[in-house]
Amino acid sequence: MKDEIKLTHTSALVLKVISGGCNYGFDIMERTGLQSGTVYPILRRLEESGLILARWEPQAAQQLQRPQRRYYKLTRAGERTLVMAGLRYPLLQNLTAGEEKR
Amino acid sequence: VNRRSIEPCLLARCLIRAAAWMVPFRSRADWQREWMGELHYAQQTLWEKGREMAAGSRLVGFALGAFQDAAWYRTHTWSREHFKWTVARGTKSASFCLFAIGLILTVITVTSGSLPRTRAALLRLPYTDPDRIVTVAQGDATLAVRSGIRDEWVRWWRTDSHLIEGAATYFWSEKTVDRRGTQVATVSSVFFPLLGAQTEDKRRFASNSFENCGNCVVLSNDFWRKAYHGKAPASVVMNGTRFRVIAVLNKEFWFLTRRIGVWEIGRGAANRNAKTGVVIRLRPDVTDAQARAELVSIVQAQGVNPWSSLYFFTEHTGSRSVLVLRARAYPRRRNDFASRSREFRAMECARIRPCAVFLLQDRIAARRCAASRFGIYASAFDHDVGGY
Q: Is B261 helix (H, G, I), strand (E, B) or coil?
């Protein structure tokens, strides 16, 4: 079995808010207060590590005259890693679903 | 969207487009699409939340983050893609074929000629001036086996040689130490000082370290860690006899094999014909050939049959089995060779078993005895000197 990936606190925070329902970059920025230059590279890294999965919004969005969004969601590996990160960073556990998705 | 937020949005778009140039071509379209989409929603979100006053600076700040993201792409993706592209293109070129042929030839050259020296340089032996440390053994011209040296020869060399600084003996065999089976080397008291071995706490053994040391042993570092978990025992029981532990060797130390767990300080051979492994330290600037010639002459001066020393060779422990120097003093005439061969076999056979019939040149007995020579090396030693 592949070893658990050790996340930085910031990456764990991003993973946590994605698990809480924030599924695109700007939303994550809004929730965490992190800068775009921090959030997007983290998303790339998490995606590369297989912890999150990215997909484009269905074409229907274009019919609404707006650009498509790129959504992120946790993979199973990401969920496991988040549990491990929760043990490593206990304060992450204090983030309730309500706080994550106000 | 009012006019006040249009200009910052335009600037932000320009920034994202500029940053997009850093992204590898293959990923650029998707990357830009995502950022433009995000910019759109950022603008919309800020507008909906009534934060249009601050929207301008926030959007520009947001877009500046695209440079960091693009830089990440550049450093993590570009090199891999570029490498693949270079390889794919390069393998189709003539220069690549020439390079590959050159590389293969270089590898062959390096591994065939220079590797032993490279290995010796990289894995330097844990002795003081290891280039002057040489093991000495008797060899056989046809069987390519080595046997140990008679203990009395070593005594002669110690007293008569001018080209060696010292000689130590060694051999090893399997023994039980504190109910654990391991290889136990029996070495002379000058063995560790001769090599310049160090203890665990980086002390060097002095020439008198083992004087008046009855039933003493030195533990190898690996054995000490595995068997005693890093706590040096005051004594160990080896094959039913208690031995005092003098020291633990430095973890880098090894000699011929790393399997030796315990080093017993021996008191010399039980009989003058017993054979052991011998390691000598040459004086500075003495070559193997010079030392070999002197050691042979010392043995011959004691009246030993010259045949015994014909296949006398030295081997650098540093290069292991790479540098083997054999004596060139083969008999010139065939008859001479044959007679010496018989003489040698007679001597060897006489040592192992009575072979008087052979001395009478009985052909049948000679054949039997010659055949038994193959068994000499196996039966003569119940211990190992690392020569096979």
A: strand
ipTM higher than the 0.85 cut: no
What three-state secondary structure class fits A94? coil
Would you list which residues of chain B are within 8 Å, Cβ to Cβ, of chain A? 33-34, 36-38, 40-42, 45, 61-69, 72-73, 76
Distance CA A27, CA A102 (A): 11
Contacts of B257 (CB under 8 A, 6+ apart): B172, B183, B386
Distances (CA, A) of B333 to B100, B338, B339, B342, B367: 52, 9, 10, 14, 22
What is the Cα–Cα distance from B28 to B34, expressed in whole angstroms?
Answer: 10
Shortest alpha-carbon distance between residue B24 and chain A (Å): 14
CA A67 vs. chain centroid, Å, equals 21
Q: What angle do CA A67, A69, A72 make, to 5 degrees?
A: 175
pTM confidence score: 0.45
DSSP state of B114: I
Mean pLDDT in runs of 10 for chain B (388 residues)?
57 89 83 87 78 72 88 72 66 81 81 60 73 73 59 87 90 87 89 90 84 86 89 87 91 84 78 73 84 81 59 41 28 41 46 38 43 36 46
* Three-state DSSP state, B279: strand
Whether A37 and B38 lie within 8 Å, measured CB to CB: no
- Give me the residue from B37, B45, B61 closest to A69, CB to CB: B37
CB of B45 within 8 A of CB of B65? no
Distance from C-alpha of B9 to C-alpha of B12, rounded to nearest angstrom? 5
